[in-house]
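> call design_seq(struct)
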């Protein structure tokens, strides 16, 4: 008996060592693997149709889908990067001129706002010192330093992107077998609910990708068009800011409202009214119609669950957490619903027969 207990204990120790070593080995590649699983899950319906079109040849279909997704992601990113660089050059030049100027003048629209000029007069006097302005710029460029650091690690980002695509090919090719095996494994530890949990995860990933990231990108594009129509400087940059703000619920208003107010203060009332109407009729429509449709259309995932999952995941894990946060909450919700249904079945089985 003692020998048997020792054998079991050594087996658990060996398993723990193997798991620990495996996690250490796989940890550097975890983001790429997770992104491959997320993208593969979100685009699986499109891959299934493409595979049927290729006569169920999984390898060919997986390669074609991977190349297609690469083009869909890479081309817009490259074009957007080129446009941003072109727009940032004059803005950086203006900032440099402002930081080195001997005296500063308030914009003309400030004089139109009652009491604002008096409030800004002291600030203007302090800002006339070029050293003070440079100190302000250094304090305000903390996030910019992070972006610069990411830019220095550009090769690492490219390598992670390539590794994600490489992994994505195998997710497409062997995905059905993988999901089936994961479902069977979860069946053993979740009381036969493995397939249900896998389905909940896939539905949640699709809801977040299409309901948050894709609609946020669409809001950025629509905003970019509106900014270009009214003649604002750097419409691409403002569109990117709008898209990033759209990831946060109700964040778009913090971009649109100041711009509309600024146009009105400059006396461009027509442009201000048009931009307000454009934002209400297009961006708000996307936010209030498409996003809930994507999030709750194919699954029973409440909007509030995805809402807190997105915010919490974004705060904890960045862009990757934005997707994984709702997934964890959706799995918890699925387990809760299964427990509720199980309790209801037990009560029904043990309840006395009703008397008509």
């Amino acid at each position: 008996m003692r020998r048997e207990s020792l054998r079991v204990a050594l087996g658990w120790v060996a398993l723990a060592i193997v798991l620990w070593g495996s996690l250490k080995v796989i940890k550097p590649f975890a983001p790429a693997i997770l992104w491959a699983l997320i993208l593969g899950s979100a685009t699986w319906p499109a891959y299934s149709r493409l595979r049927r079109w290729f006569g169920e040849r999984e390898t060919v279909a997986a390669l074609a889908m991977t190349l297609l997704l690469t083009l869909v992601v890479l081309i817009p990113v490259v074009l957007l990067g080129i446009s941003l660089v072109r727009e940032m050059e004059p803005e950086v030049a203006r900032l440099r001129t402002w930081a080195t100027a001997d005296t500063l003048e308030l914009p003309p629209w400030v004089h139109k706002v009652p009491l604002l000029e008096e409030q800004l007069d002291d600030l203007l006097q302090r800002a006339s010192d070029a050293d003070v302005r440079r100190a302000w710029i250094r304090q305000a460029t903390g996030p910019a330093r992070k972006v610069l650091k990411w830019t220095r690690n550009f090769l690492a980002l490219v390598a992670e992107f390539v590794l994600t695509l490489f992994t994505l090919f195998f997710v497409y090719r062997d995905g059905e077998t993988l999901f089936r095996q994961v479902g069977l494994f979860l069946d053993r530890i979740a009381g036969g609910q493995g397939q249900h949990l896998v389905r909940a995860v896939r539905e949640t990933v699709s809801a977040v990708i299409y309901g948050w990231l894709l609609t946020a990108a669409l809001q950025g594009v629509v905003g970019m068009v509106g900014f270009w129509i009214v003649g604002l400087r750097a419409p691409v940059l403002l569109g990117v800011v709008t898209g990033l703000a759209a990831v946060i619920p109700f964040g778009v208003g913090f971009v649109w409202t100041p711009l509309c107010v600024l146009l009105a203060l400059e006396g461009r009332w027509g442009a201000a009214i048009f931009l307000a109407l454009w934002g209400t009729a297009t961006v708000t429509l996307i936010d209030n119609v498409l996003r809930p449709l994507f999030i709750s259309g194919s699954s029973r995932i409440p909007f509030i669950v995805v809402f807190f999952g997105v915010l919490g995941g974004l705060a904890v894990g960045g862009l990757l957490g934005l997707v994984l946060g709702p997934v964890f909450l959706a799995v918890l919700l699925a387990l809760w619903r299964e427990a509720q249904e199980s309790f209801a079945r037990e009560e029904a089985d043990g309840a006395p027969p009703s008397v008509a």
